[in-house]
Amino acid sequence: MTDQWWKQAVVYQIYPRSFADADSDGVGDLRGIIGHLDYLAGLGVDVLWLSPIYPSPQDDNGYDISDYQNVDPLFGSLETFDELLAGVHARGMKLVMDLVVNHSSDEHPWFVESRSSTDNPKRDWYWWRPARAGLEPGTPGAEPTNWGSAFGGPAWEYDEQTGAYYLHLFSKKQPDLNWENPEVRQAVYAMMRWWLDRGVDGFRMDVINMISKDPALPDGKLPTGRAYADGSASYIDGPRIHEFLHEMHGEVFQGRAGLLTVGEMPGVTVDEAIRYTDPAREEVDMVFQFDHVWADRGPDPWLLMPLQLTTLKAIFGRWQAGLADVGWNSLYWNNHDQPRVVSRFGDDSAYRVESAKMLGTVLHLHRGTPYVYQGEELGMTNAPFRSIEDFRDIEALGQYTDAVTKEGRSPEEVLTVLRARGRDNARTPMQWDASPQAGFTTGTPWLAVNPNHTEINAAAAVADPNSVYHHYRKLAELRHTEPAVVDGDFTMLLPNDERLYAFTRRLDQTELLVIGNFSAETVRAEIDDAAAWAAAELVLTNTAAPTDDLTLGPWQAVVYRRMLSR
Ligand code: NOJ
Questions:
Q1: Number of H helices, E strands in the chain
Q2: Ligand 1 atom closest to 103 (CA)
Q3: CB within 8 A of 121, min separation 6: which ones?
């Protein structure tokens, strides 16, 4: 095993709350995951990433942690966790934890102490500021900056006890930790070492490129029609971010082998990503960038923009080229914050199976480590939310309130966007079988199961050799057996085509051609060498084999392989 073993790996993300409920309380748990480890091993994935399972008031479904070194009773106990970890390792897989240290819960003892008095030793562990000069503390507009929080409302909460405000880039129950304070950093590193000593294999680091803030905290620019400004210029890839991540590497990862670290980094640029993932700089192995999942988002968040395939290709092309020589990409369509990709970029009705497989093929054949989000391997779709009452996500509810009550949007226009883009689309329970609660729970699920589980479910998919599940299994197998998938150079073809996504991968004498049809039309790929390619070995496709002139049927994907002469 090389130290860059993760280049050949496929990661599978589990959102524990929605995966499998063994104790019938309607919320998924660790025992539920243990019961499905053979399913995951059968899919051929190498690493499991667990979204947070730590004690938490669950304001943001566990991304608000009140104890970093324990398991929430909702999910189980440390003993059950050890059993899970052993079960994962016994099947030759690894387990990566979610690390949420841009903020803690307001119920974490660190924050409880911090807010208790201005001279508490932990006061400076969070970002406390007085009201804006000349304004009455606690009144609207008196917040220290004009920044909005990601979940609606201002990014500051007034705390009467000490007459000051604390910063929360997310909910008011998620106060931001002050990484300027070395005691905070040492406490986080100690906690990380504790988990590694327990046997976990790495971390997915939540919004980690936001931990370094410009201590001046200047106002942001207020877009017209919006209630709050965007402060991100002061905290995305902030002044000391590389110093902090390098320090973390030295304090936590140095001298330990076989780990995976991936930083979630909204707004990260290619140039910054090269710095974050250059192995010589010792920061993180790879980052989650957001450009491709923002490709169908315009300046107005409440207007749905159709995807331009040329835009998507330009984005991926830029990232593939940028990290070609130094650093490494992570590849994802889905996670617990994104709508289901088959509904977003595919066709979730007539061509659901074909388009889900096509999307998986195109993604997994890029250079980088692919991530599969639970249910993606089944082609799970967005959910039929009727009204705002059907949503549970703090982001959807907070943004709805701001848009409707503060910005004068109509409820229907906001709902249209939430139905298409809301995070709860990803969070409906995993569809295990066709039974009433999809085999997820025998109780009442915390979020309604998608009624289409009678057709789309794991039991049916495992039994059907032509399912999306078996296609994802083949994609993992191809990565494990074809070195060109892992290490091959990437060349984008047909950048101006709005229907076909085509590229080649090349390693030594092996060349792969990948084409995905992002449309329901039949399209011929006008590429150089088409006749020769059509005669090459067809390694993988998702429908009937194409004709001999590279004409692809609706939502078809093909992967060809040929050997070049020296
Ligand atoms: C990113 C996580 O993926 C998301 O679910 C969460 O709400 C925010 N960070 C805040 O932790």
A1: 17, 18
A2: 11
A3: 113
Are 101 and 211 contacting, i.e. CB atoms less than 8 angstroms apart?
yes
Residue from 296, 301, 308, 309 nearest 416 by CA: 301
Q: Residue 298 half-sphere exposure, CB side, CA atoms within 13 Å?
A: 9
Strand duo 557-563 + 537-541: pairing: antiparallel
165, 157 in Cβ contact below 8 A?
yes
Q: What pLDDT, on a 0 to 100 scale, did the predictor assign at position 1? A: 46
- pLDDT above 90: residue 549: no
Q: Which residues line ligand 1 (CB under 6 A)?
A: 60, 63, 100, 170, 206-207, 264, 336-337
Query: How many residues are listed for the chain in this entry?
Result: 566
Residue 336 Cα to ligand 1 middle (Å): 9
From the CA of 507, how far away is ligand 1's center (Å)? 37
pTM of the model: 0.98
Position 481 pLDDT exceeds 60: yes
Residues of the chain with pLDDT > 90, as a percent, come to: 96
Q: Give me the mean pLDDT over the 431-454 stretch.
A: 98
pLDDT at position 2: 61
Q: List the catalytic residues.
A: 206, 264
Residue 479: the pLDDT is 98
Higher pLDDT, 224 or 238: 238
For residue 63, give the ligand 1 atom closest to its CA.
11
Contact in structure between 388 and 397 (CB atoms under 8 Å): yes
Q: How far is the CA of 169 from the centre of ligand 1 (A)?
A: 10
Distance 20 CA to ligand 1 centre (A): 21
What is the secondary structure of 199-260 as a DSSP string? T--EEEETTGGGSS--TT-PPPP--TT-SSB--GGGTTT-TTHHHHHHHHIIIIITT--S-E
The single-letter DSSP state of residue 286 is E
Among 99, 207, 338, name the best residue to mutate to test ligand 1's pocket (greatest count of ligand atoms within 8 A of Cβ): 207
pLDDT in tens, 337-372: 999 999 999 999 999 999 999 999 999 999 999 999
pLDDT given for residue 227 in this prediction: 86
Residue type, 475: L
